[in-house]
């Protein structure tokens, strides 16, 4: 950008001093990264970036797929003024309010008060947005607690690898219908996986076999060669165990060859 702006023709279209946007934030960033450039060059670069950004917003107004706009809103490096303008345009056009609100909620440059407001709005907006919050690894724990307490999107919380241990333990103790989700979660502690494995059915064994956190002592029953081993005869589970990173490589390879023959 510096090379382009330095050698471009200085006319009204390339350097507009009348751009009605506060450029101080962008100018500060440029001086942090390139302290050696002149103030005039930094101003011209900033104006060029804002000009391009404004063209992006104009394009997005006529673009059916607003996922690009939502991505810009969630980007912490997108200029604040442009983010606010784009947010207002999307909300005024009745486009997926929940997606816009979530984009703001996860943007670290948005004030904490605004983030709290956005999370609460998204949870109340529609259950599908609550599901997105429940499964997103960036979601603050306080909102996972709220959703679980209200019985909303429990399955997503149980599967979320960022869900803290105490919530996973609470789910295991109080919500038996979610054991399958816990058995699939790579963040579920081994002691909980062992508890789930005691007396579990084929569906739960399938989840345990696919979980990369399942310890070897739980995988070994799948690999024993006794004729009455029902678990080994279940092909889908067998291959899941073979592929599990905790299975001994040589044993898995030998059993796979035997099965092929």
Q: Please describe the biggest sheet, giving its number of strands, its sense, and whether it closes into a barrel.
A: none
Query: Averaging pLDDT over every residue, what do you get?
Result: 79
Number of helical elements: 18
Distance between the termini: 62 Å
Summarize the helix and strand pattern as letters: HHHHHHHHHHHHHHHHHH
* Number of E strands: 0
Q: What gross morphology would you assign?
A: elongated
What does this structure look like?
With 261 residues, this protein is mostly helical. It is 66% helix and 0% strand. It contains 18 helices and no strands. Helix 4 (67-74) packs antiparallel against helix 5 (80-92), helix 7 (112-125) packs across helix 8 and helix 14 packs parallel to helix 17. The longest helix has 23 residues, at 39-61. It is elongated and about 75 Å long. Mean pLDDT is 79; it is low at 1-21.
Keywords:
261 residues, mainly alpha
Give a nutshell description of this structure:
The protein has 261 residues and is mostly helical.
């Amino acid at each position: 950008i510096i090379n382009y702006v330095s050698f471009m023709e200085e006319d009204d279209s390339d350097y507009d001093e009348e751009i009605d946007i506060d450029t101080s934030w962008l100018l500060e960033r440029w001086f942090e990264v390139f302290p050696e450039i002149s103030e005039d060059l930094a101003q011209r670069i900033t104006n060029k970036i804002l000009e391009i950004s404004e063209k992006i917003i104009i394009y997005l107004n006529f673009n059916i797929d607003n996922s690009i706009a939502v991505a810009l809103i969630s980007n912490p490096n997108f200029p604040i003024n442009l983010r606010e303008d784009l947010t207002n345009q999307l909300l005024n056009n009745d486009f997926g309010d929940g997606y816009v609100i979530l984009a703001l909620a996860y943007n670290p440059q948005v004030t904490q008060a605004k983030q709290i407001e956005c999370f609460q709005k998204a949870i109340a907006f529609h259950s599908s947005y609550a599901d997105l919050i429940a499964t997103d690894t960036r979601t603050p724990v306080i909102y996972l607690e709220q959703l679980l307490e209200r019985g909303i999107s429990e399955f997503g919380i149980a599967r979320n690898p960022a869900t803290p241990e105490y919530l996973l333990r609470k789910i295991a103790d109080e919500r038996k219908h979610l054991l399958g989700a816990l058995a699939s979660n790579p963040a579920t502690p081994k002691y909980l996986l062992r508890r789930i494995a005691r007396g579990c059915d084929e569906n739960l064994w399938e989840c345990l076999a696919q979980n990369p956190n399942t310890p070897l002592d739980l995988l070994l029953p799948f690999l024993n060669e006794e004729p009455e081993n029902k678990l080994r005869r279940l092909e889908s589970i067998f291959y899941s165990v073979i592929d599990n990173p905790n299975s001994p490589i040589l044993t898995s390879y030998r059993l796979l060859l035997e099965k092929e023959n």
